[in-house]
Amino acid sequence: MQAFSALHRLVSAVCSRPALPRCGICGTASDTLQPGFGLLFDIDGVLVRGRTPIPAARKAFQKLFNPQGHFVVPVVFVTNAGNCLRQTKADQLSHILGVPISQDQVMMSHSPLRMFRKYHDKCVLVSGQGPVLDIAKNLGFEKVLSIGMLRESFPLLDVVDHNRRPKLPSSSIANIPQIEAVILFGEPIRWETNLQLIIDILLTNGNLGHAHQNLKVPHLPLLACNMDLMWMAEAHSPRFGHGAFLVCLENIYKKITGKELKYEALVGKPSELTYQYAEYLIREQASERNWSRPIRSLYAIGDNLMTDIYGANLYNRYLEERLARKKRKAVAKMATVTGSSGMLSQEDDLDGPWERELAAPSATSCKSMLVCTGVYNPHAELLSDGGRKSQQAAFHGHRDFQFDPVLVEPGYIVRDVDEAVELIFEQEKFVAQ
Ligand SMILES: [Mg+2]
Q: pLDDT per residue over 197-235, tens digit each?
């Protein structure tokens, strides 16, 4: 028996090495049977429309699970929604898809704010709807105020809706600490109230007890999540998203001050940081499953050209440039060893602060896949010039992102998410185990 145990240990050790086939004794999967890719799924317009599941979603997810009830590839849900906690979204997805989803697989637009630690001990004002105070605290922010709390303390400031004006003479209750930063989680319910009070906070440098002042430059730090101008719910046509709210805020600020509103951070798709964070979650999943094969390819499946496709292509560009810098660095290192000339420029420095925080990406490509079950309307886009001229004329991306026709060109266009998964398995020559 001891001899058999020793033999089993030996066989297990040998089979844990990469590039060996599956071992019949210990059952360890070889590298060739492990996934070398990860999937990033958008939610609205890909898996659901509002609260209604898209039929292809369940079908697609049956392919992603093995008989033991485990995912066969690493999967992250990257949504620009931001009005609930990750656990709530994971529960919704489990119900819709009929498979267990963990909160560690869910990335909301605000998730990268977890890394902005320098603001975690500052007094921050949060704007949005849903449990915004809980969301902020969950991300690590310790001193959080809502727009509602400001309104209660300064009842004279919110007067657009005549019915909400104080009925009796009232004065401010100055028990609100000075605000040091503003976080915009998502579109609020009462736009006029939030627009008014956020502008007030910026023009009083965080102290609503004061009148508007001559501006400090720069204004208080502003961190915004989710730049989607529009999104697709159950209605026939797209609905206003948080990006529409940001357009209002930016324009009011500029009209009043003559200056541009500046963001300390813009997170959520299509920002690069969001994809870096998503890739980090993919790597974490692979490591938890003891998949030793590096994740080289990412596939991002979405319905919005300006968000999902632009973001995936932007991240792909970042990965390609990083790879080129890595090669230049290797050549320069070799040149130093051999004594020939080879200089590294500062640009060749591989890692910025987020790479150091999240560890370097293992992926070398991020492929964009566009589905036709959401915002994207294939008939409208193909009217002229592949839709490029109309896209440029009506660029739906955020003010701080430039229109680039290459970035809104999807790697693949598929009917729905099920077709996307089938195509990816084919491309990767992957057979689920
Ligand atoms: Mg979408």
A: 999 999 999 999 888 987 767 899 999 999 999 887 778
Q: Is residue 221 part of a domain?
A: yes
| Domain final residue, candidates 241, 267, 293 | 267
Q: CA torsion sign, 301 to 302 to 303 to 306?
A: negative
Residue 64 lies in a domain: yes
Q: Are residues 120 and 230 in the same domain?
A: yes
CA neighbor of 50 nearest in space, from 374, 303, 416:
374
* 374 CA distance to ligand 1 middle (Å): 7
Residues 143 and 253 both lie in one domain? yes
CA of 233 to the centre of ligand 1 (A): 9
Three-class SS of residue 69?
coil
Residues 287 and 362 both lie in one domain? yes
Distance 244 CA to ligand 1 centre (A): 15
How many separate domains does the chain show? 2
Instruction: Detail the DSSP E strand segments found in 139-275.
Output: 143-146, 181-184, 222-225, 230-231, 239-240, 265-267
pLDDT digits (tens, 9 = 90+) for 144-156: 999 999 998 998 8
- Ligand 1 center to residue 247 CA distance, Å? 19
Residue 99 CA, ligand 1 centroid: distance in Å: 21
Do 124 and 86 belong to one domain? no
CATH (domain of 40) = 3.40.50.1000
Q: Could you tell me the distance, in angstroms and rounded to a whole number, from the CA of residue 133 to the centre of ligand 1?
A: 25
CA of 185 to the centre of ligand 1 (A): 17
- Distance (angstroms) between ligand 1 centre and the Cα of 231 equals 6
Q: Are 28 and 287 in contact (CB under 8 A)?
A: no
116/263 same-domain check: yes
Return the structure tokens found at 118.
């320098």
Q: What is the pLDDT of residues 62-107, one digit of tens each?
A: 999 998 889 999 999 999 988 888 999 999 999 989 899 999 999 9
Instruction: Of 255, 253, 191, 244, give the one whose Cα is nearest residue 222.
Output: 253
Residue 304 CA to ligand 1 centre (angstroms): 6
For the chain, how big is the Rg over CA atoms in Å?
25
Whole-model pTM: value is 0.81
Neighbours of ion ligand 1 (CB under 5 A): 42, 44-45, 303-304
For residue 164, the CA-to-ligand 1 centroid distance in Å is 35
Q: Are residues 355 and 228 in the same domain?
A: no
Is residue 247 located within the same domain as residue 355? no
Q: Tell me: do 97 and 150 sit in the same domain.
A: no
Q: What is the pLDDT of residue 170?
A: 67
Task: Find the domain containing 213 and state its range.
Answer: 112-267
